[in-house]
UniProtKB/TrEMBL annotation:
Protein name in UniProt: Phage tail protein
Organism (species): Salmonella enterica subsp. enterica serovar Typhi str. 404ty
SUPFAM superfamilies attached to this UniProt entry: Receptor-binding domain of short tail fibre protein gp12 (SSF88874)
Source species taxonomy: Bacteria, Pseudomonadati, Pseudomonadota, Gammaproteobacteria, Enterobacterales
Superkingdom field: Bacteria
Amino acid sequence: YPTLKLPDLRGEFIRGWDDGRGVDAGRVILSIQGWLTGSHYHNIRSWDAWDNTVLVPNDRGGDSLLSTDNAVQEGAINGKFTSQYRTELSGGNETRPRNIAFNYIVRAA
């Protein structure tokens, strides 16, 4: 390490430095990487609604059941509601916590 001192890792997840292996390309020692949620959908499933009010959030887009202004749709549904809708695909190519690239080969003085 350039400063000849171990970094302050309190509150950080340690991710072993790739060092050209190709698993986490482009990282350098002690670089910080933000959190990421892997790409996924959320399905809107069927349920029995017996005169209940149904709230459907629209914070991820989705299909025609949802509005286009990021509002919450509200309405009464009698009987069984069946849907084949799902939200838009969102997220990245992996799921990870915020982390710091760390070289596990440390020379203790």
